[in-house]
Structures are given as structure tokens and as C-alpha cells.
Write a structure and sequence with these properties.
Layout (H helix, E strand, L loop, with lengths): L34 E12 L6 E12 L2 E11 L3 E3 L3 E14 L2 E12 L13 E11 L3 E10 L5 E3 L3 E3 L3 E11 L4 E12 L2 E15 L2 E14 L4 E12 L1
Antiparallel strand pairs: 1-2, 1-15, 2-3, 3-4, 3-5, 5-6, 6-7, 7-8, 8-11, 9-10, 11-12, 12-13, 13-14, 14-15
């Protein structure tokens, strides 16, 4: 999985997404107060004899001039090792403190691009822009986050959940969380990706633990609900840690 680099810097994601498309990490802070570092590892177990893929993502988040900026670099290892596309993006919370269905609501728009970088078959060949938005709703101990992200694939790009793609991609991520305590959250995540000729949906539980005011850890596992892919997934396991400075 790759970090939801589309909205991770602006939405309170209480559980993680299991895909990487230009977008959602295991889960990350609501915003980068000044600077936030997120390190995430994801393991994609494939069906049949296909090799397992492991992804390591490093994301830096910064809050500047009222906007949340991010840069993410993924590294992959399977039969071969290499790095993927550098992801640069920005998001804006254009509505905060709203009320929808009795919940404190935040609305966000975001956009960015995958740079033409990468190696060993994990590259993106051309500048690949994306845009999206999301809604975050909080009812006290219960929260819900829904994001949508559309990626314009102008050449080809590597997606760890779906492989190398040359088609535009729609990604949807739904996160439902429950605050067991002020520092411990359990949740359920559903990640969906759709493109011409294929689709995948992964569902599973997540746990988010705030160890200290500036450090949080999250783990999750997802299982395919449905998929139509060249190489299908058996499960996705991920873990991440974030540090706020």
C-alpha cells in the first residue's frame, strides 16, 4: 500500500487504505502542524505463484500558507528492488467545523502529480496528475472519512495493488473509526480502485495508537472483497508510524 498522499495531510484518517494510486498511508495525522514524517511498510501477498511485494513509503507533510503540502517517495522490493514515482501534492480544507447529519464536518479538495521517476519496473513514465476530495465526519467517539481520487495516467504508472497501469484510475477510500480511548482507535477500511479492464476492493480492520503527543502507530490488514486483476492479491498487511515536529 502506499500512503494516501492525496488527502493524508488534511483529513483525520482513523484507519488505513490498502492501495497506492496517487493517493491514502495506513493513517496519518489530521494535518502537519509544522512538519510531519510518516514511515510506512506494506506487504502485498499475491495469489498463485506470484512473488510477494513489499513497499516502503516515506512521506513528509508540511502546513504552509493555509495549505497542507506533501512529498512521498516509495521503495519496492520483490523479485527485484527499486523506487517508484515521486509524489508531490497539496490539499485545502475549504470547510471546517461544519455540521452534516449531526457530525462535525470537514470538506477537503486536493491535487498533485506523480513525477516521471522510478526504476526496476516500478517507474512512472510521464508526469501523471491527479485530483480529488474528501469529507471527514465526527460524532464524538465515532468518525467517518470518505475520499475520492482520480488519476490521469498519461503514460504508465506502477500501482502496488494493481500492477503497472496505463489507464486512468478512480480510487475510493472509506474509513470508519471508533475511539476506544483518547489514544486508541479501532476501525474498518474499504479501499476501491477502478480502471478500464480491471478493479479491486480490499476490506479489513485497523488499529491506531497514539503513543505520545508527537508519535502515533497504526497497523492494518485487508482482504479482497472482489478483484479483476492480472495478478490477484490474497491479502495486504501494513504498518506505519508518524512523527510530528
Amino acid at each position: 500500500m502506499r500512503i494516501n498522499t492525496l488527502l493524508v495531510s488534511s483529513l483525520v484518517l482513523t484507519s488505513g487504505a490498502f492501495a497506492q494510486d496517487a493517493v491514502v498511508p495506513v493513517s496519518t495525522p489530521a494535518s502537519a502542524d509544522v512538519l510531519t514524517l510518516v514511515e510506512q511498510a506494506s506487504v502485498y501477498v499475491h495469489s498463485d505463484s506470484a512473488s510477494t511485494l513489499t513497499a516502503f513509503d516515506t512521506t513528509i507533510l508540511a502546513h504552509l500558507i493555509g495549505l497542507d503540502w506533501h512529498v512521498t517517495l516509495p521503495v519496492y522490493t520483490s523479485d527485484v528492488s527499486g523506487y517508484g514515482a515521486l509524489d508531490l501534492g497539496v490539499s485545502w480544507d475549504f470547510l471546517t467545523g461544519g455540521n452534516m447529519l449531526g457530525a462535525t464536518t470537514k470538506l477537503t479538495v486536493a491535487g498533485g502529480a506523480l513525477m516521471p521517476t522510478g526504476s526496476a519496473g516500478y517507474e512512472t513514465t510521464e508526469v501523471t496528475p491527479y485530483f480529488g476530495g474528501g469529507v471527514s465526519m465526527n460524532w464524538g467517539k465515532v468518525s467517518f472519512v470518505q475520499t475520492a481520487n482520480y488519476t490521469f495516467v498519461t503514460g504508465s504508472t506502477f500501482n502496488p495493488l494493481a500492477g503497472t497501469l496505463s489507464e486512468n484510475t478512480l480510487a475510493l477510500t472509506s474509513n470508519l473509526g471508533y475511539d476506544v480511548s483518547d489514544t486508541f482507535v479501532v476501525g474498518v477500511n474499504l479501499t476501491q480502485e477502478y480502471f478500464s479492464g480491471g478493479n479491486v476492493a480490499v476490506l479489513g480492520p485497523t488499529v491506531d495508537w497514539t503513543i505520545a503527543p508527537s508519535v502515533s502507530v497504526e497497523v492494518g490488514v485487508g482482504f479482497p472483497v472482489w478483484q479483476e486483476l492480472a495478478v490477484e492479491n490474497t491479502c495486504v498487511v501494513n504498518a506505519g508510524v508518524s512523527f510530528k515536529f
